[in-house]
Amino acid sequence: MIPIDVPLTTAYLKEMVQINSINPGLSQGGAGEGAVAGWLSRTCKELGLDVRLQETAPGRSNVLARWPGSGGGKSLLLTGHTDVVGVENMTGNPFDARVENGRLYGRGALDMKGGLASILGAVAALRAMAFQPAGDLWLGFVTDEEYKSSGTEMMVQEIRPDAAILTEPTGLQICIAHKGFAWLSLNTIGRSAHGSLYNAGVDAIVNMGRLLARLECLEHDRLPGREHPLLGRSSVHASTITGGVGWSTYPDRCELRIEHRLLPDEKAESTLAWWRETLAELAAADPQFRAEVQLDFARPGYEIAPDAPIVRALDGAYSRTTGEAPIYMGMPAWLDSAILGREGIPTVIFGPGGEGAHAAVEYVNLDEVFRCAAVLAEAATGWTGAAS
Q1: Can you give the residue ranges of every domain in the chain?
Q2: What is the mean pLDDT of residues 184-189?
Q3: In the predicted model, what is the mean pLDDT of residues 289-304?
Q4: Which of 107, 175, 264, 282 has a CA 20 to 30 Å removed from the CA of 329?
Q5: How many CB atoms lie within 10 A of CB 333?
Q6: Strand-strand pairing, 99-100 and 174-178
Q7: Distance from C-alpha of 50 to C-alpha of 276, rounded to nearest angstrom
Q8: Are 78 and 137 in contact, with CB atoms under 8 Å apart?
Q9: Is 84 in a helix, a strand, or coil?
Q10: Residue 17, exposed/middle/buried by CB under 10 A (0-12, 13-18, 19+)?
Q11: What pLDDT does 388 receive?
Q12: pLDDT 10s digits, 73-93
């Protein structure tokens, strides 16, 4: 097993967690990723890497670091996101990075600065053993994954490695599939009138009830009929609902926002088409029923074959490092790997575990950070090849 510098890797993690990098797209006044990008840039330069910042928004930058290969090997990207979600539900100092009982606590410790520390620990270990890759080894630390993934969208415009490992938290299992999602807005249109004029008003909120009933049937009757072996089934839920102007007024509009979680082979456009057909059916049955639907934002799911070369490379690295066979998994959440895969970059997901992503108490298991680093180092040597 390639030895990992435990104190150094722990220091990397503590320093990153202590930097507030709340995504401003999610939390008003969020600090953004500028400070952590500066820290990562300096750290990667200290590791002897070629580094440049790629601005994704004012004050927010990706960090793209390259360890140039000597030639003849395959290139590899180790990547993860630098933004974190808000801290409104947390108590105490969410950025104290305290260590207790083998766990490091704080916002972003698990999601996903633990994975970033594993990447840095792996590179430090390879430097310490004087390894020289034949293929380029890229590190990509990206912005905005928690909102719209603008960071990875911009990164793939600049670099196209032969494969990638995304270090999202998997509890050291190998993740080869995850879901996508679609955000839709449904609007029912009524007719405003005084509350006493039942023959004049059309209640948009009551009409929305018909769509909620269809959503319930979809969730409980239709979607359970098809399952993915690693991901289970797709799902849909109501997210927010607004409508009405006062006690004595028929509401002329009601808006329902919904989220569909999609299997890798399901398309957001098909989901939109199903809702359009549903609205048309309800309108045909009732001339006073009027409604609209729009697709606001969507991301596809992702799946990579278990026998893909980068999956086999990671599988072998895990077995050589731990002496055990890895466990394979799917993840219900959406990940940046879908963008990488869309651009023809085969990507596998592997990172340390813990508890509390987006929750009031968040921590990463330190021993898993170190083991992840060792596996990443082994995978990098096998994939890129050693310079001759």
Answers
A1: 6-178+302-384, 180-299
A2: 98
A3: 97
A4: 107
A5: 13
A6: unpaired
A7: 51
A8: yes
A9: strand
A10: buried
A11: 63
A12: 999 999 999 999 999 989 889
Which residue, chain included where needed, has tokens 């180092």? Answer: 377
Q: Give the Cα separation of 223 and 219 in Å (integer).
A: 6
Which helix (H) or strand (E) element contains residue 297?
strand 291-299
CATH number, domain 180-299: 3.30.70.360
Distance of alpha carbon 140 from the chain centroid: 14
Averaged pLDDT score across all residues of the chain: 97
What is the Cα–Cα distance from 249 to 29, expressed in whole angstroms? 37
Task: Please enumerate, as own/partner, the contacts of 270-276 that have beta carbons within 8 Å and a separation of 24 or more.
Answer: 271/182, 271/184, 271/295, 272/182, 272/184, 275/184, 275/186
Tens digits of residue pLDDT in 11-42: 999 999 999 999 999 998 899 999 999 999 99
DSSP string, 238-292: EEEEEE---TTB--SEEEEEEEEEE-TT--HHHHHHHHHHHHHHHHHH-TT--EE
- Lookup: tokens for 165: 């490992």
Task: Give the whole-number percent of the chain exceeding pLDDT 90.
Answer: 97
Whether the predicted model's global pTM rises above the 0.90 cut: yes
Record the tokens describing residue 68, joined without a space. 């140039």
- The answer to which of 38-47, 83-92, 159-168 has the lowest mean pLDDT is 83-92
